[in-house]
Every structure is written in structure tokens, then in C-alpha cells.
Amino acid sequence: MATKGEQTRTEIVECAKRLFYEHGYGRTSFSDIVDAAGVHRGNIYHYFKTKDEILKAVIDRHFDEFRGLLQRCQALHANPKARLVEFVKMIILRKQELIQYGCPIGSLNTELGKDQPDLQQSARALFDLFRDWLAEQMDELGLAGQAESLALHLLGRAQGIAVVAHVYHDSKFLQRETDQLEAWIGQL
Fold first, then answer.
1. 54: closest CA among 30, 22, 79, 35?
2. CATH code of 97's domain
């Protein structure tokens, strides 16, 4: 069972994760996080000294959550094609969020890559997680020579779909494009 301190730290990270996603890292202040978490400003310094430290904890939280999703997908499906289709279905499961805010890791990486490359390197680990997992699935399909390029193609298509669906607030586009991705996977 988590201690009160662990619960408070978790609440701070969850509030920051939501705010960074909905408003962006740059547009979220330390005070916004303090207010959303309901923590006294002096107490937050016990957990995090800077907003950058909070960001690193948010990235770690995303990493753990996405790694867990991929592990569940791995356990659920013996067939690598089925796992790849499940990856695409993860996009549809987040349809409303993607349409409203875009992809949480894509948006974060894009924002940080513009003027905070050191922080973007930390956030890139989220893309690396997906790229590596997708490449493993391609490798299992016997596509070892092309595994990484196919993984990046799938990841790039997924990101592009998320961006365009967000820009146009178009759930039908999202569905149509993910259906096409599933068909492409079926042809591998």
C-alpha cells in the first residue's frame, strides 16, 4: 500500500500529465500543477524542485503505462499480426482525446523538440519503446531485414493519423485511416 507521500507524488504527476497533454508543457506553469494537485506550494518542493523534474516523472509514468499496454498485448495475442492490429486499435480507443488534444507523446515531443532538445531526448524514449516493440513484431513475421523501417512506417502513419484527426476534429477520418492500417498489416 502506498504511503501518503507516495500518493501525493502520484497525484502531482497525474495532474501534470493531464495539464501537459491538454495545455502543453510550455503553457503549464508550476503554479498550475500545484493548484490542480491541491498541494501547498511549499510542500511540492519536497517532491519536485522544478517543472523539468515533474516532466521527467510524467515521461516515466507514460513509459510505464505504454510498456504495460504492450506487455498485455503481447500476452493476449500469440500472433504478431494480431498484436500489430491491437496496436492500431489503441489509436481508436483514444479517439476522443486524440481528436481534442492530439497524441500525448507526439505533441510533447514536437513541443520540446523546438527549443528544449535535452528534455525532448527524455520524451523520445516513448517513441523508442513503440518503435522497438513494433520492430520485434515485424521481425517475428519474418521481416527482419525491414523490421525497423516497417516499424517506423507504422509509427509514422499512426502519428500522422493522430495529427490530421486532431487538426480537422474528424473521427471518421481516424476510423477510415486506422481501417486502412489494419488492412496493410493483413498484407504483411
1. 30
2. 1.10.357.10
Residue 102 in domain? yes
Q: Which residue has the cell 523490421?
A: 147
Q: Enter the C-alpha cell of residue 9.
A: 507524488
| 147 located within any domain | yes
pTM above 0.85, yes or no: yes
Contact 134, 143 (CB under 8 A): no
Q: pLDDT tens for the chain, 188 residues: list them.
A: 779 889 999 999 999 999 999 999 999 999 999 999 999 888 889 999 999 999 999 999 999 999 999 999 999 999 999 999 999 999 999 999 999 999 999 999 999 999 999 999 999 999 999 999 999 999 999 998 999 999 999 999 999 999 999 999 999 999 999 999 999 999 99
Is 109 among the domain residues?
A: yes
Alpha-carbon span 139 to 134, nearest angstrom? 9
Instruction: Establish if 44 belongs to a structural domain.
Output: no
Provide the domain limits for residue 161: 56-187
Query: CB under 8 Å to 25, separation ≥6 — which residues?
Result: 51, 55, 108, 111, 112, 119
Q: How many domains does the chain have?
A: 1
